[in-house]
């Protein structure tokens, strides 16, 4: 598994999330656009076709009307008179005798005698004989005659009025076998009939002229032009080809037409379809491009965020998060393949001192340099991570045996042997290393890290600048620590803690001027446990706040018994820097009624050095309340002088380690001497701790130490014993006066 690309693939996975809805929306939009285009096209086509149909109907009517008028013209022409007369005389239908009449294929004169056989009538054109046509023409003729009869006037009355005749005429389409024809019938002027002296029997029956023409291509073309349609044809019997429109009207008998409709919609589709397609393609392209760009940027920034979250900014190497992830992955892999691996915790010894003495910038430079040197001694595949301010961790792969881990630990220790150049200075670094192996020491990542941590503590305990392997007993130690933690928690709650008080004497060693409260734990099985055995644990496990509160309250209560004494209380840095601390002190003073000016809080240098600003404001507030402040274990840190000037302490307590080594080295005596002088010069009370011998007492008295504390005068004792000691002192004084 490549952890580095997890971020990218996550962003890639987001790609379909963006692109799918966009594509769906786009598809819907496209389908809608196409649908509306097709719908519009179809509607246009239908409209156009129905327009064409209407025009066709009109053109046919107009053509028929024209035929009626044309025929009326023929009827009115004098050329017709002779033919008419003979036809009349014979009482038979006869060809009009002049085939040249424009617009007609044949014209018949149909005299009054309707039923007369049409024998001997020569056909004017082709087979359009009256015999064949008679049955089809009969209804038309009948209709014209009926109309004339309905007119109510005799043939004589009607006169030779052509226009009137034309108006009375009628035309329609006919089918004759397979042929489509147009036929017109107009009444003949009455004049010739009368001149001919028609028989009385014929009176009342109007002679008519019938004109017929074939709907041949020429005729169709005329109609088509008038109707503005294309490829007009007769569609009566043969099946109409697909795509052609048809027209038939009841008035037109059996004749129906077909034509090729114009399809403006299809044109629209042909024009806009590809355009729409092109647009769709363009938009899809753009959207896909955009989505790609977005996801790539997303992937990039996600990758960057992933990288930042998993790397140490200062050294550019993996941080704890990535280390843990890599370790998880490697453990899984090693578990499957039956391989071994190791976790090495590397902790810089006393690195805080470097920061304190040379500043954080110098500290950062050194951390970076150390990381580089360690990285140089790693083998291919091993990973160095920075897991804390001054803590590194190494994931060692390809471990054959413990010897490989040991070799790596030695290489790392060796790598930092040479001094580091920090500004003008050469600083020496020291490391402690804890080693734990998988699967020997641990079955899971958590266990492996804890094992390496325990091994690291062992290395530090054994004197630093060394490495230690995890062993099973460390686990036991951890379990014991766990039990102790639980027990301490209940001890704080159940008042199983006790305070002992160690007297603080004036320089003469006779008068008790104060007491220092020192906590002990009364354990059921282990007896009285000294603070060194559990204060650190309490600090680590977050128990120091309730413990410190308990101590402060008990000391103030006990202190009420000794109105002349100052009561000193040790305050852990964690407790002091806790934001509720000043308020807590105020509350306890109020609650117990203890005089603030008799309360002395002992702080160690660590507090003022690490969190100077927070410490300063707390100190100012406490002093405002009237509480006194002492700097404990003076002389063991780096920056005593600087901070002594900055922070307003009332007292310094010279660390007992100086007195311990005073006998053996003259140097310590000089330090104590100058510390006392310094304190006095700054107007502070100077107290010496750990006074065990009369020689030390004499020396301290001689150099001007104000107060003394040590086994020489008294060990820390229960409160009741202080009462007794105070009584004894009073007695001595009394005796001295007497
Ligand atoms: P400390 O504040 O330096 O306290 C003085 C320690 O020196 C006490 O150890 C005391 O018993 C011991 N001592 C006094 N006179 C002599 C002497 O002549 N020779 C030698 N060798 N030692 C002497 P103790 O009581 O074991 O306390 C140890 C440390 O535990 C204290 O050192 C203090 O840092 C811490 N401590 C004690 N009580 C409390 C407490 O209530 N709260 C906190 N935060 N820390 C406490
Ligand atoms: Ca102290
Ligand atoms: Ca001390």
Question: What does this 3D model show about the protein?
Answer:
With 738 residues, this protein is an alpha/beta fold. 53% of the residues lie in helices and 18% in strands. The protein has an eight-stranded mixed barrel, surrounded by five helices. A hairpin with a 7-residue loop joins strand 7 (245-248) and strand 8. The protein is rod-shaped and about 195 Å long. It binds ligand C2E and calcium ion (2 copies). One calcium ion binds next to loops.
User: Could you give a short account of the major beta sheet?
Assistant: 8 strands, mixed, barrel
Q: How many beta-strand elements? A: 25
Query: Which range best describes the helical content: under 10%, 10-25%, 25-40%, 40-55%, 55-70% or over 70%?
Result: 40-55%
Low-confidence parts: 114-125, 158-166, 191-203
Strand content: 15-25%
Count of domains: 4
- CATH topology value of the largest domain: TIM Barrel
- Helix and strand composition category: alpha/beta
List the helices and strands and how they pair.
Layout: H1 6-76, H2 80-90, E1 94-95, E2 106-110, H3 130-150, H4 155-158, H5 162-168, E3 170-176, E4 179-187, H6 190-196, E5 208-214, H7 217-227, E6 230-234, E7 245-248, E8 256-260, H8 264-309, H9 320-337, E9 341-348, H10 351-358, H11 360-376, E10 383-388, E11 391-396, H12 402-415, E12 420-422, E13 425-427, E14 431-438, H13 445-461, E15 467-469, H14 472-493, E16 497-506, E17 512-523, E18 527-529, H15 535-540, H16 544-559, E19 566-570, H17 573-577, H18 581-592, E20 599-603, H19 605-610, H20 612-624, E21 628-634, H21 640-646, E22 651-654, H22 656-660, H23 666-681, E23 685-688, H24 694-703, E24 707-708, E25 717-718, H25 719-737
Parallel strand pairs: 14-15, 17-19, 19-20, 20-21, 21-22, 22-23, 23-24
Antiparallel strand pairs: 1-2, 2-5, 3-4, 4-5, 6-8, 7-8, 9-11, 9-14, 10-11, 12-13, 16-17, 16-24, 16-25, 17-18
This protein binds ligand C2E and calcium ion (2 copies).
């Amino acid at each position: 598994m490549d952890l580095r690309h997890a971020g990218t693939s996550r962003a890639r996975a987001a790609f379909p999330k963006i692109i799918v809805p966009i594509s769906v929306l786009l598809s819907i939009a496209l389908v809608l656009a196409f649908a509306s285009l097709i719908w519009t096209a179809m509607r246009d086509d239908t409209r156009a076709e129905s327009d064409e149909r209407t025009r066709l109907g009109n053109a046919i009517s107009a053509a028929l009307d024209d035929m009626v008028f044309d025929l009326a013209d023929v009827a009115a022409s004098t050329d017709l008179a002779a033919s008419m007369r003979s036809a009349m005389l014979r009482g038979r239908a006869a060809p009009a005798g002049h085939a040249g009449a424009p617009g007609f294929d044949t014209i018949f004169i149909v005299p009054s005698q309707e039923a007369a056989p049409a024998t001997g009538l020569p056909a004017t054109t082709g087979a359009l004989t009256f015999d064949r046509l008679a049955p089809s023409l009969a209804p038309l003729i009948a209709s014209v005659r009926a109309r004339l009869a309905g007119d109510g006037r005799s043939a004589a009355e009607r006169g030779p009025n052509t226009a009137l005749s034309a108006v009375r005429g009628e035309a329609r389409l006919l089918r004759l076998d397979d042929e489509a024809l147009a036929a017109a019938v107009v009444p003949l002027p009455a004049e010739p009939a009368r001149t001919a002296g028609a028989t009385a029997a014929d009176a009342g029956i109007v002679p008519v002229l019938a004109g017929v023409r074939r709907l041949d291509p020429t005729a169709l073309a005329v109609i088509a032009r008038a109707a503005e349609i294309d490829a007009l044809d007769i569609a009566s019997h043969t099946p109409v080809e697909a795509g052609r429109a048809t027209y038939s009207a009841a008035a037109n008998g059996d004749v129906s037409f077909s034509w090729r409709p114009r399809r403006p919609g299809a044109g629209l589709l042909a024009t806009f379809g590809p355009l729409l397609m092109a647009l769709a393609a363009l938009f899809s392209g753009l959207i896909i491009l955009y989505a790609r760009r977005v996801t790539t940027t997303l992937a990039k920034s996600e990758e960057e965020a992933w990288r930042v979250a998993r790397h140490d900014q200062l050294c550019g190497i993996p941080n704890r998060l990535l280390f843990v992830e890599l370790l998880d992955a490697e453990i899984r892999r090693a578990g499957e393949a039956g391989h071994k691996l190791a976790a090495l915790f590397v902790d810089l010894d006393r690195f805080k001192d470097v920061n304190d003495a040379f500043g954080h910038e110098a500290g950062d430079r050194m951390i970076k340099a150390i990381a580089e040197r360690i990285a140089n001694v790693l083998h291919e595949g091993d990973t160095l991570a920075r897991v804390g301010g001054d803590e590194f961790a190494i994931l060692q792969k390809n471990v054959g045996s413990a010897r490989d881990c040991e070799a790596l630990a030695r290489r790392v220790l060796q790598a930092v042997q040479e001094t580091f150049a920090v500004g003008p200075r050469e600083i020496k670094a020291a490391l402690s290393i804890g080693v734990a192996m998988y699967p020997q020491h641990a079955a899971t990542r958590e266990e492996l890290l804890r094992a390496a941590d325990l091994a690291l503590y062992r290395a530090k305990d054994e004197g630093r600048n060394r490495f230690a392997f995890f062993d099973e007993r460390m686990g036991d130690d951890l379990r014991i620590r766990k039990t102790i933690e639980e027990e301490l928690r209940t001890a704080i709650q159940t008042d199983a803690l006790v305070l002992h008080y160690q007297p603080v004497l004036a320089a003469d060693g006779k008068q008790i001027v104060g007491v220092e409260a020192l906590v002990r734990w009364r354990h059921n099985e282990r007896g009285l446990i000294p603070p060194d055995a559990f204060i650190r644990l309490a600090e680590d496990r977050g128990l120091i706040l309730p413990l410190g509160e308990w101590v402060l309250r008990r000391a103030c209560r006990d202190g009420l018994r000794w109105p002349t004494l100052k009561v000193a209380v040790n305050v852990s840095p964690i407790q002091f820097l806790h934001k509720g601390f000043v308020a807590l002190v105020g509350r306890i003073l109020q609650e117990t009624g203890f005089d603030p000016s008799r309360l002395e809080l002992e702080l160690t240098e660590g507090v003022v050095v690490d969190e100077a600003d927070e410490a300063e404001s707390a100190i100012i507030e406490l002093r405002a309340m009237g509480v006194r402040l002492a700097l404990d274990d003076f002389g063991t840190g780096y920056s005593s002088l600087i901070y002594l000037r900055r922070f307003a302490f009332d007292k310094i307590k010279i660390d007992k380690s100086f007195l311990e080594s005073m006998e053996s080295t003259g140097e310590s005596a000089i330090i104590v001497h100058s510390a006392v002088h310094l304190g006095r010069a700054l107007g502070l009370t100077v107290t010496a701790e750990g006074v065990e011998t009369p020689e030390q007492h004499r020396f301290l008295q001689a150099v001007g130490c104000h107060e003394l504390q040590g086994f020489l005068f008294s060990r820390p004792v229960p409160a009741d014993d202080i009462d007794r000691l105070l009584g004894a002192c009073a007695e001595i004084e009394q005796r001295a006066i007497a």
